[in-house]
Amino acid sequence: GAARRALKLRDDLPVVLFMSGGFGVGDMGTAVERLTRIPRPYQLVVVCGRNEALRKKVSRFKGVQAHGFVKNVQDFMEASDLVITKAGGLTVSECLAKAAPMVIYAPIPGQEERNCDYLLEKGAAIKAKGLEVLDYKVAELLAEPEKLAAMKKAAPDAARPFAARDVLRCVLEETT
What fold does the segment set 2-175 form as a domain? Predict the structure, then answer.
């Protein structure tokens, strides 16, 4: 599609987007290295944010498209078949809006764990508890396009595009 063309990505291979927010440089480098060993052909795009050292490190891996801070994250998500991310509210909302299936990486207790549980229940994500299983989980999904398609179909159903309006309505009803 247009998003893939704009990002110079091929239409004939799946795209996995790795959002680095909340990852340590060491973990991220190791994770990217392991992901590049997946034998199935796919395109790995890594968004490193303002972490230039990380961008330089991961750009050395063969076949990895590494980016720093991007203002068009929606284009990256639209071009992606799968997004690896933490379970922060904003990124999760963006993924759901673009119907992008997710691999939630090592959710921290509290909000991330609850967001992850919700996405798992809705079928829009799978969880990789740690680095040691991340590449396996991604490889498994790339090998099962029908599961990936089902997750993509589930994502919009998990979205709550009018949540702010609904909360405001509830608050106003309580105060009047």
Answer: Rossmann fold (3.40.50)
